[in-house]
Design brief:
Helix content is 36%, strand content 20%. The protein has 554 residues and is of the alpha/beta class. It has three domains: 301 residues, Rossmann fold (3-Layer(aba) Sandwich), CATH 3.40.50.300; 120 residues, Domain 2, N(10)-formyltetrahydrofolate synthetase; 83 residues, Formyltetrahydrofolate synthetase, domain 3, CATH 3.10.410.10.
Length: 554
């Protein structure tokens, strides 16, 4: 059966029953129908001083077209922990409609390790994406209106860095001209669209700790520069209150459930290749406060999502992971070992050994943070015992616990051995440390990520980036962490360089201040903040039947 057929045949409980498992009552919930709810701010405030449980961070090797199943493992692991008596809560990101309608797919897991209702979550859910899109574009409209109405702040329209957004993959909108049609239509200028999940407002929503912090962060957004090249902030426009009003409901975490009834907070969805790739701090804290174990994930491979989780999110979350789970598949390792996608069903033990270099580097990187590591092998039907034995032997030789997981096929029951390994690892003493110090220069932080995580030889800053480094240091912005915008497919900025490349140079072409989010984005290679659709988008297979059920949604 397909994922959607499994989801539609599952027995879904009223969300009030799921909430009751972790001590939430009806007054703590804002219901969105029978099976979805947001958590009321009053309850979030009541839980603020509650002690945290253990934190499990799920990440992966560099993704390939073969698939890794990080969300599936996250969900199946949480179900398995509950099966063996550990009260566990999940914290996941929300899907974006762009990849749902494109090629990447959704973010609700797969097989018998899914969060429900998967149709709603993968489509419009509770309207969070709409709220973020609206707030982003309201700011763009207010900014352009300020310039049209006399430009009291002396904003240079050529130096506006705030873009409009839409929650779709649409390459036609990457570069546009706005304000055409004469004086009453506005001031003509070059502009462009990003995808909603690349908006700084998405990052802000995911890093905000309450409404007051949300307003402060919104006020700190830099939208452009004056003719004197001074930064212009949202607080200068005095619209942070209006933006917060549009976001007040979106700020509340969403509660849903897995097929096995495990509570799951699905909230916020920044991409890890163009943003910081983690679900919201508020959702993560609720999972930590309501469960003995909180299982969360970070986007794409550990070189992107996990690095940003550990260096950007953890200082604000106030809790480091007690264990990092790195997901790998035999299929993906064979691709990193040089096997073509159409040859992956054939046994190739040598390719597993070659491709292991990618996993080995991720393991070493995560251990460098001082956190225990467990490897999860996400099983596929084409995997052979010889291939499993090779991978398990390589992990054991490296001193890392490795467990198979068949959660796609068997749900939580297929992840119990992994769950036991995670419990043992989380009980170990560990001493977490971030990759760099905030007092390091911005250039130094970028070099440390490139050299310590990617294992590149050097960093080349193009002329624009060099100028920005000096400007940002002058403005005092270089004390912020760095958020690398890089291809997810490789440690390098070349998506075709699979495995574990060495001695490459990372090129930084531009830096973007995200002061509301509290980090500086470093743009590398050809990473697009507005993706395009593939030749045959997933949307071509989608439909709806006569009673309103989704068809072809994975």
């Amino acid at each position: 059966m397909t994922d959607i057929e499994i989801a539609q045949q599952a027995t879904i409980k009223p969300i009030t029953e799921v909430a009751a498992k972790v001590g939430l009552v009806a007054d703590d919930l804002e219901l969105y129908g029978k099976y979805k709810a947001k958590i009321e701010m009053a309850k979030i405030q009541d839980l603020a001083k509650k002690e945290f449980g253990k934190l499990v961070l799920v990440t992966s090797i560099n993704p390939t077209p073969a698939g890794e199943g990080k969300s599936t493992i996250t969900i199946g692991l949480a179900d398995a922990l509950n099966r063996i008596g550990k009260q566990t809560v999940i914290a996941l990101r929300e899907p974006s409609l762009g990849p749902v309608m494109g090629i990447k797919g959704g973010a609700t897991g797969g097989g018998y390790a899914q969060v429900l209702p998967m149709e709603d979550i993968n489509l419009h859910f509770t309207g969070d994406m709409h709220a973020i899109t609206t707030a982003n574009n309201a700011l763009a409209a207010l900014l352009d209106n300020h310039i049209h109405q006399g430009n009291e702040l002396n904003i240079d329209a050529r130096r506006i860095i705030w873009k409009r957004v839409v929650d779709l993959n649409d390459r036609e909108l990457r570069q546009v001209i706005v304000g055409l049609g004469g004086p009453i239509q506005g001031v003509p200028r070059q502009d462009g669209f990003d995808i909603t999940v690349a908006s700084e407002i998405m990052a802000i929503l995911c890093l905000a700790t309450d409404i007051d912090n949300l307003k402060e962060r919104l006020g700190n957004i830099v939208v452009g520069y004056t003719f004197n090249r001074e930064p212009v902030y949202v607080r200068d426009l005095q619209v942070q209150g209006a933006l917060a009003l549009l976001l007040k409901d979106a700020l509340k975490p969403n509660l849903v459930q897995t097929i096995e009834g495990t509570p799951a907070f699905v909230h916020g969805g920044p991409f890890a290749n163009i943003a910081h790739g983690c679900n919201s701090i508020m959702a993560s804290r609720l999972a930590l406060q309501l469960g003995d174990y909180a299982v969360t994930e970070a986007g794409f491979g550990a070189d992107l999502g996990a690095e940003k989780f550990l260096d950007i999110k953890v200082p604000h979350l106030g809790k480091a992971p007690d264990v990092v789970v790195i997901v790998a598949t035999i299929r993906a390792l064979k691709m990193h070992g040089g096997v073509a996608k159409d040859q992956l069903a054939e046994e190739n033990v040598a390719a597993v050994k070659t491709g292991y270099q990618n996993l080995k580097r991720h393991i070493e990187n995560m251990q460098g943070y001082g956190v225990p590591v467990v490897v999860a092998i996400n099983e596929f039907v084409t995997d052979t015992e010889a291939e499993f034995a090779q991978l398990e032997s390589l992990c054991t030789d490296q001193g890392v616990v490795v467990k198979r997981a068949s959660v796609w096929a068997n749900g939580g029951a297929g992840g119990e051995e992994l769950a036991k390994a995670v419990i043992n690892a989380a009980a170990q003493e560990h001493d977490f440390q971030t990759l760099y110090q905030m007092s390091d220069s911005l250039e130094s932080k970028i070099r440390q990520v490139v050299q310590k995580i990617y294992h590149g030889a050097e960093v080349h800053f193009e002329k624009k980036a060099q100028t920005q480094l000096r400007t940002f240091a002058k403005e005092g912005w270089d004390h912020l962490p760095v958020c690398m915008a890089k291809t997810q497919y490789s440690f390098s900025d070349d998506p075709t360089a699979l495995g574990a490349p060495n001695d490459f140079v990372i090129t930084i072409r531009e830096l973007v201040p995200k002061l509301g989010a509290g980090f500086i984005v470093a743009l590398t290679g050809d990473v697009m903040t507005m993706p395009g659709l593939p030749k045959k988008p997933a949307a071509l297979k989608m439909d709806v039947d006569e009673v309103g059920n989704a068809v072809g949604l994975f």
